[in-house]
Structure formats: structure tokens, C-alpha cells
Amino acid sequence: MNYKERLNPWLLVELLPGHRVPVGRFRSQSDAEGHLKSIRNRMPSSDFAVIFDCHPKPEAQ
């Protein structure tokens, strides 16, 4: 995970059968939920979710 991704851990994804499609990254949960609300108004038949994207630190070698 690069530095920019660590600054924006909240991820808005579109839920499709078998996988998730990233829509955007956000610094705060409230920003992500605000965009989720906007997208749901434009695309009411699609499924979206806000998730916290955390990856464990890679082990030092």
C-alpha cells in the first residue's frame, strides 16, 4: 500500500457478483458516506458499500 492509499483508508466500492470494483478513496468515513449517498441517488439499482481498507505492514527483511 503506497503512502497516498494509507492517507485515504476509506474505500467506496461497487458490489458486483464475484468481486468489488473500487470507486474512490477517502480520508474520512463521513466523506465516503457522503459520496455513497450521492452515487445511490444517481444509480439506485446498483449496490455500493463503504469499507475500511487496512493491510498489515509488510514484514521487514
Write a concise synopsis of the structure shown.
With 61 residues, the protein is an alpha+beta fold. Helix content is 31%, strand content 33%. It has one domain.
Strand order of the largest sheet: 2-1-3
Number of domains: 1
Q: Please state the overall shape, judged from the principal axes of the Cα atoms.
A: flat
Q: Structural class, judged by helices and strands?
A: alpha+beta
Count of DSSP-assigned helices: 2
User: Residue-averaged pLDDT, rounded?
Assistant: 87
Helix content: 25-40%
Distance from N terminus to C terminus (CA atoms, Å) equals: 17 Å
What is the H/E string? HEEHE
User: Mind telling me the C-alpha Rg?
Assistant: 13 Å
User: Strand portion, in percent?
Assistant: 25-35%
Largest sheet: 3 strands, antiparallel
Q: Count of DSSP E strands?
A: 3
Which stretches are poorly predicted, pLDDT < 50 over at least 5 residues? Answer: none
Describe this structure in words.
With 61 residues, this protein is of the alpha+beta class. It has one domain. 31% of the residues lie in helices and 33% in strands. The protein has 2 helices and 3 strands. It has a 3-stranded antiparallel beta sheet, with helices on one face. The longest helix has 14 residues. It is flat and about 35 Å long.
Topology, please?
Blueprint: H1 3-7, E1 10-16, E2 19-26, H2 29-42, E3 48-52
Antiparallel strand pairs: 1-2, 1-3
Which key terms come to mind for this protein?
single chain, 61 residues, alpha+beta, 31% helix, flat
